[in-house]
């Protein structure tokens, strides 16, 4: 593979990094299976693209995309906490609703940013050259990671983490778990929409189907990163999410270079997640077999010792 392909995978991994961090917040920290992500990613892209297409400031458009994603997460949280709808179903309902909303925002299924100024155009104005997407993606990932690291160590952040670990215990201590869920879902979907807005400007268009399967891609990235980097500390958890995003995009680029049809990428992603989720079970079974074998050898040795007497 040429160097340009690896650099492209690095760029995409960094630009999708905010999305993976958003998935980490909902899936790992909050322990909430949030399918809103598929819709909020497209929502961020739709809002940013529509505003830029209308002549708006790209930075303001990106910020409003983040706000739109936060609102989507809040709606999912309200459906769950106030109407007592199951977490999975609440995310599905908002995701379905966002499909129509995104179409309304864009006005069509595909909206191009050809000849429009974007945040990447601004990078070229400051002579960043071809490194503009990588620099912006790196800056975004560092900013988001630092913000999450500081927030998750505050009293509110600790309450958010405790809600995901043991909701009943933290509620018995007087914490409003409904509030922490709303905050976590809003944060997670805001980051996903932020990534969607950047990706749309990077690609030069927004498409109504660009968010399909995004939750699986995010989970694959988180699981791959955790397997390689580990989860002993909060810093390593955040680093694992970003590392997994880059590695996942590199794997996709490698597979495409080997001739795999692009239409099979969703299948490949699903297989990666299945294998990664099944690994702990396989390790446990292998360890159990090894312990049984060791125990059998000890019993056999003891029997041979008794016979010698």
From TrEMBL:
Protein's recorded name: ABC transporter permease
Classification via PANTHER family: ABC TRANSPORTER PERMEASE PROTEIN YPHD-RELATED-RELATED, BRANCHED-CHAIN AMINO ACID TRANSPORT SYSTEM, PERMEASE PROTEIN
MF terms (GO), sorted A to Z: transmembrane transporter activity
TM annotation in the entry: 59-79, 86-105, 131-152, 208-230, 237-259, 265-282
InterPro entries (alphabetical): ABC_transp_permease (IPR001851)
Keyword Secreted assigned: no
Domain of life: Bacteria
Keywords assigned by UniProt, alphabetized: Cell membrane, Membrane, Transmembrane, Transmembrane helix
Membrane topology, from the record: Multi-pass membrane protein
CDD domains per UniProt: TM_PBP1_branched-chain-AA_like
GO cellular component, one term: plasma membrane
Location relative to the cell: Cell membrane
Record organism: Desulfotomaculum copahuensis
């Amino acid at each position: 593979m040429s160097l340009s392909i690896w650099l492209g995978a690095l760029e995409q991994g960094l630009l999708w990094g905010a999305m993976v961090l958003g998935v980490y917040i909902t899936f790992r920290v909050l322990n909430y299976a949030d399918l809103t992500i598929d819709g909020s990613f497209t929502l961020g892209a739709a809002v940013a693209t529509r505003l830029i297409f209308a002549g708006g400031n790209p930075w303001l458009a990106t910020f409003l995309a983040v706000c739109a994603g936060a609102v989507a997460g809040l709606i999912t949280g309200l459906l769950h906490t106030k109407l007592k709808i199951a977490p999975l179903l609440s995310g599905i309902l908002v995701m379905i609703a966002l499909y129509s909303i995104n179409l309304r925002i864009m006005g069509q299924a595909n909206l191009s940013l050809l000849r429009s100024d974007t945040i990447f155009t601004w990078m070229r104005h400051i002579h960043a050259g071809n490194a503009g997407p990588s620099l912006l993606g790196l800056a975004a990932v560092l900013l988001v990671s630092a913000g999450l690291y500081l927030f998750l160590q505050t009293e509110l952040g600790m309450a958010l983490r405790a809600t995901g670990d043991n909701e009943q215990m933290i509620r018995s201590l007087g914490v409003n778990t409904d509030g922490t869920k709303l905050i976590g879902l809003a944060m997670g979907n805001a980051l996903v929409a932020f990534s969607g807005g950047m990706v749309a400007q990077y690609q030069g268009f927004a498409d109504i189907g660009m968010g399909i399967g995004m939750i699986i891609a995010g989970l694959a990235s988180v699981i791959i990163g955790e397997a390689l980097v580990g989860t002993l500390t909060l810093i390593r958890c955040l680093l694992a999410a970003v590392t997994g995003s880059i590695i996942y995009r590199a794997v996709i680029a490698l597979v495409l270079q080997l001739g795999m049809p692009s239409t099979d990428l969703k299948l490949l992603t699903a297989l990666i997640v299945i294998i990664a989720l099944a690994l702990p079970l396989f390790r446990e079974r292998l360890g159990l077999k090894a312990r049984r074998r060791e125990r059998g050898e000890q019993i056999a040795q003891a029997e041979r010792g008794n016979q010698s007497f």
